[in-house]
Protein 1
Amino acid sequence: MQLSSPIYKLKRQAKLLARDTDIRLHEALNRIATKEGFKDWSHLATNYAQATPAKEIMRHMRPGDMVLIGARPGHGKTLLGLELAALAEKINRAGYVFTLDYTETEVRDRFEKLGCDPWSFDRPVVVDTSDDICASHIIQRLRAAPDDALVVVDYLQLLDQKRSNPPLDEQVRALKRFSCERGAIIVMISQIDRAFEQSLSGMPSIRDIRLPNPVDLSLFDKRCFLHDGEVRIEMAA
């Protein structure tokens, strides 16, 4: 059953409901779950844990894949990427998050929204917030890694923000070569162009990816788009 909103937003709704109606939080959670068509919050949480969008994407991932996640701000693309990094341990991989957009504290806060502590895993998720993040920086860090990696890059359009970095297309090609050579899985979070908001389309597509600089998007083996709680997964032709 598809939730009307990501689970962290439903939890926020429950907290507001508990505050506004002076009821206990567990009762507010159950009311929200009932509206979503579940018996209670435990029923909702169990079903969500069994079939989250991240787990569905993981089923399609193969060594060497490059995956693109695209959405407008506030539609859950970063949380989806972080959940994939947290799930890396489940497929015997080490999770990495390279972000030019968030501090490590902000990343931890978002992991908390997901209800997980990836630093307590047998293979803790590595978070890199260096200003030097680009393809060569990512590759250099991964070459020394002992385990197969699942890498989340946040986000695509920032990799060439420094003039000293190579063009974006060149960086994406370098990451694709590396993922194929080492069997890594690389997930890149992407902005969606603002023009999408004026379109009649209910879901972004590859045509809506914001590209201030050219990139060959056919380099991505899988693509995932999010909007208003809906998720669509596409395989490259």
Protein 2
Amino acid sequence: MSDEKKNKPTPKRNAKKFTPALAPAATKEAKKAERENARRRRMEMRELYLKGDERALPKRDKGPVRKFARDYVDSRWSIAEFFLPLLMVVLLLTAMPSVTIKVLATLVMYVVVLVSVLDGVWMGRQIKKACSVKHPNESVKGVTMYAWMRSTQIRRLRTPAPQVKRGTKLI
């Protein structure tokens, strides 16, 4: 070992000194404009999503089978969509002092849940059967649960928004 110095920094130290900045320095105005553009793009995509535009839909909502399932659910009445408002009524009724009212309200809630599940199973079978005819090369995996979950939502609150009116014949 010699006691001489190298007379230059080690390569690692040298590399740290001259590392370029990861992002270019931006002015306040440029950052504000970029934020505004990003906000505008998000709002446009949200509007397209709410309208049901295929380009703006998430993966779970894309495809002709899912579109058919949405339209099928939206074209009919379902007891499942009244479950949440009914649940609120049941909650109020269970606060009553009468035990009879509490029991009847709870019984009605359980009957609605049972009917909703049976309706969902029947609806899922109908959708799968219709999709196998209309879209024979498409997968129908998960479409039953997708349709049932949509049917449990209040119609005005569904996203994407319903594209068909109630009573429209799809099959």
